[in-house]
Amino acid sequence: xxxxxxxxxxxxxxxxxxxxxxxxxxxxxxxxxxxxxxxxxxxxxxxxxxxxxxxxxxxxxxxxxxxxxxxxxxxxxxxxxxxxxxxxxxxxxxxxxxxxxxxxxxxxxxxxxxxxxxxxxxxxxxxxxxxxxxxxxxxxxxxxxxxxxxxxxxxxxxxxxxxxxxxxxxxxxxxxxxxxxxxxxxxxxxxxxxxxxxxxxxxxxxxxxxxxxxxxxxxxxxxxxxxxxxxxxxxxxxxxxxxxxxxxxxxxxxxxxxxxxxxxxxxxxxxxxxxxxxxxxxxxxxxxxxxxxxx
Length: 295
Description:
The chain is an alpha/beta fold. It contains six helices and 18 strands. Helix 4 (181-190) runs parallel beside helix 5.
């Protein structure tokens, strides 16, 4: 029986050569993406910035009506088509998107590392990336065996395939699917499929390629139940991240504990965070997570 941890964890990411969290505070954060610096909103940064001034190439200014929109304002020229970055062997394109993101989530770096640790020396592991976005996690997983990448956005899947080509990994055994994640998981259950590991990063609200509506609080339990049916006692992990919701990490851990009760291993939960660069660095929380590991 999978044991539920009694205390939360902090899974903190550090900067690397192509990314750093330079400072945060006052509801904003200053980050470096390769040669460029950007300011973005960050509601979790309740403290004051450490630096007296922030020099950036661009800033995302949120819309006044709090509908999640906004626009970029640039102080210097930034390539609109994007520029290449890397994490380990994976190369990908960073780009200032209309959704304030830059084409990948740097706080996921410790998650990619952790998944690799669970798979160890495997080269035949079957893994599934639901809501796979631009594929950086998929490409990291592909070092351990075949990966199925699912996202409802044609544009995101196209960018993921482009990132695979940029990395020289286009020949890796990856299935790139434009599909509704919940419907796909349900079909995989009916097909009797199994996976060694599953990662899912569902949005608070979204639509599938045929207009299917996704609401996290309403649809997550059924999706987790299907993910459980795709795992068995020989599987290695499930990793769930949740952003921008009024929900506790303990709540989603309880969901996993119920769904995965018959499996061995442990269920852990807590916060994802990124550590600031430099002395007196603080941890900036970015998301909550719950994970199951077998061993």
